[in-house]
Amino acid sequence: MTDRRTLRTLTAAAFVLLLAGEAAAQQGDVQRGRVLAQSWCASCHIVAGDAARTGADKAPPFAVIARDPQKGPDYLRPWLTQAHVGMPDFSLSRREMEDLIVYIGSLAP
After folding, report:
1. 67-80 mean pLDDT
2. What is the reported pTM?
3. Where are the domains of the chain?
């Protein structure tokens, strides 16, 4: 009986830790997102809110994406997991994706 109780307790603790890690990953980090955007996205997008035009003409500036109410996190998550014509497939990790999404959101006025 004690072994079952211990197993249930350990399983519950592992589940709580898994959920906590998932929540932390979904919060994202603005600074990590900025670094990621500068290293991976800046050749095509304007990634800073106050940057001069340096990205490709067809790639929207991140500040424009941030101001679009239809392009929030729930839009960006699935969008960033799919391949798009003219955009490299970076295969972002969940954490990188959340960091990038939080950074883009930080550019909204």
Report:
1. 94
2. 0.70
3. 28-106
